[in-house]
């Protein structure tokens, strides 16, 4: 079974959103800090399932969302988010990315969404013909509002979808997970509950080899949850617990490769590049495991030399990066 990363533009985020969770970075900082932005990629994934057909995990952003003021007019998100938070070149729209693989949106047989945040469901309406799988807790919370203001699921982004398939994770445990959901009955695509970043955040285990975490982890470095932590607007204890369970899954499945939606590190870049043909070469797998050995100890503590840091841009007005 093949799995293809789909590059769906990029998003501009405060460094503290990704790495300030243990330094007191707050929602107020998120709204106010305009001096420590970084660009990170947005990835969805296409699973080329041998019997089901093409299956999407997340959909990335849409061109409509880049016209921020128009798309979010009348919503609190018009004011909370920066107008240039998304960048989407024409060749990175999900339709263009699917086209490179010989598919059109109508060919997709199922969609799995890791959570309802806008950079993961921006093109969900394109696939309203297909069933949409997601965690039951995420579906139940779809109308909840952060601080009473921001909806978990922005209504225009999901308006066309009618075939929702909430998952209860009543299947067998694996690794640190007490339950799972076998989506297609053949153990090839297994959904796992990783709440915290959102109420029903879901990760997807593909072919017992690849774990697609959505935003349950932003980067591979976030495995070191006691040293590197994203800002949390939900239940931080759930977020930490989910990452610890992912760590136990790594111990149970030593060849596991973790693929996130926004990993800007060398690891993320190499794995995305290596999967361009839908399969990871032995050399890429060996590189990934060597990288992990050099980055983490057996308890997923991070090598101090690889702690992230913000690097300002060389020229005024440009965006920095995380080293």
Automatic annotation (TrEMBL):
Reported cofactor(s): Zn(2+)
One Pfam short name: Lactamase_B
CDD domains assigned to the protein according to its UniProt record, in alphabetical order: AHL_lactonase_MBL-fold
Gene Ontology molecular functions: hydrolase activity; metal ion binding
UniProt keyword annotations, A-Z: Hydrolase, Metal-binding, Zinc
Keyword Hydrolase found: yes
Domain Metallo-beta-lactamase: 41-262
Keyword Ribosomal protein: no
Family: Belongs to the metallo-beta-lactamase superfamily.
Name this polypeptide is given: Glyoxylase, beta-lactamase superfamily II
Organism: Microlunatus soli
Phylogenetic placement of the source organism: Bacteria, Bacillati, Actinomycetota, Actinomycetes, Propionibacteriales
């Amino acid at each position: 079974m093949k799995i293809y990363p789909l590059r769906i533009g990029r998003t501009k985020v405060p460094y503290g959103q990704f790495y300030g969770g243990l330094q007191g970075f707050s929602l107020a900082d998120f709204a106010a800090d305009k001096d420590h932005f970084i660009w990170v990629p947005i990835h969805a994934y296409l699973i080329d399932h041998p019997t089901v057909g093409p299956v999407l995990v997340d959909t990335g952003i849409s061109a409509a969302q880049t016209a921020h003021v128009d798309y979010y007019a009348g919503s609190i998100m018009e004011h909370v988010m920066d107008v240039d938070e998304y960048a989407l070149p024409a060749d990175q729209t999900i339709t263009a990315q699917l086209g490179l693989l010989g598919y059109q949106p109508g060919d997709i047989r199922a969609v799995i969404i890791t959570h309802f945040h806008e950079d993961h469901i921006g093109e969900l309406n394109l696939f309203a013909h297909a069933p949409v799988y997601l965690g039951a807790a995420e579906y139940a919370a779809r109308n909840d509002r952060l601080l009473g203001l921001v909806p978990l699921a922005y209504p225009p982004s999901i308006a066309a979808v009618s075939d929702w398939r909430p998952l209860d994770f009543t299947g067998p445990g694996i690794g640190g997970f007490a339950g799972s959901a076998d989506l297609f009955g053949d153990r090839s695509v297994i959904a796992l509950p990783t709440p915290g970043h959102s109420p029903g955040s879901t990760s997807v285990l593909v072919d017992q080899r690849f774990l697609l975490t959505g935003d349950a982890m932003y980067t591979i470095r976030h495995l070191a949850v006691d040293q590197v932590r994203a800002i949390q607007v939900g239940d931080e204890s759930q977020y930490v617990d989910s990452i610890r369970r992912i760590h136990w899954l790594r111990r149970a499945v030593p060849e596991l490769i973790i693929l996130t939606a926004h990993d800007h590190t060398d690891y993320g870049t190499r794995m995305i590049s290596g999967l361009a043909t839908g399969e990871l070469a032995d050399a890429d797998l060996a590189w990934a495991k060597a990288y992990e050995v050099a980055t983490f100890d057996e308890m997923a503590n991070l090598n101090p030399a690889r702690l992230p840091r913000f690097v300002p841009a060389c020229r005024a007005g440009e965006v920095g990066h995380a080293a």
